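**User:** I keep going back and forth on a fold encoding question. It is easy to fool oneself when nobody else works the same problem. Could you pick a protein and write out its sequence and tokenised fold? Could you put it straight underneath, so I can go through it closely?

**Assistant:**
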Amino acid sequence: MTIRVAVAGATGKMGRLALDLIEASDDLELHAALSSKSELDEMLGADVALDVSHPAASAGIVEFSAGAGIPIVVGTSGWSSERIADIERFVRDHEEAGAVLFIPNFSIGSVLGTAFAALAAPWFDSIEIVEAHHAGKVDSPSGTAVRTAELVGEARAGKGPVAAPHADQRARGQLVSGIPVHSLRMSGLLAEQRVVLGGDGETLTIAHSTLSPSSYEAGILLALRHAPEAVGVTVGLGTLIGLDLPTAGGGE
């Protein structure tokens, strides 16, 4: 079976990567390549949509696709657990709605790093996240950092909040689920995340670095191939690779 894919954000870096993957694949076929000037109804007739557009445009794309019964894989940043909850209600209230898969990060290594941080979180009372991306990334914190912070918070639900002294000071980062998150945006970087956990006499650092966009390829293909059979709302690539993680949300 060939899966017809509509790509929203086709002119961006992730969009161009997706187009190359679709062209090289035997079971995927490009249905439409949408830019910011395209009409959303160009997605109609696709078996699955991929949203790698812009945070300001993503909500409209997701609502159109889901409302049209087209499953959509969302790789665009800016999706917090609260915004995802709105989409969950929309999908639940519309019987014919297409499934929505929110994938904050298509990198398998990044997903595993987040899972390791959630696993370690109950054992440490001091936890902070430092994430760094290229200068062109328009949002901060990153969706991956938001996802990680939310999962760390879920993992510590029975332990109480982390120790975050002087959180009122701007230099201490933005609190996400009670976790201080610090963002760097600068030339020379692609994507990095470090979760630093501190305990009595020790620290544990869980770090992941993205060195090439090729690290996203396996995750993109996995999500596109899974989407046509998906139901409801799925959050995170971890679900697709069998990781047992909480369902809190995020964006890349």
